[in-house]
Amino acid sequence: MNLLIIIGVVAVLVIWGVSLYNNLVKLRNNRENAFANIDVQLKQRHDLIPQLVATVKGYAEHEKELLIRVTEARSVAMGANTINEKVAAENTLSSALAGLRVSLEAYPDLKANQNFLQLQNEISDIENKLAAVRRFFNTTTRELNNAVQTFPSSIFAKMFGFQKEPMFEVPQEERAILDKAPEIKF
Question: Which of the listed residues 7, 18, 46, 166 has the most CB atoms within 10 Å of its CB?
Answer without folding.
Answer: 46
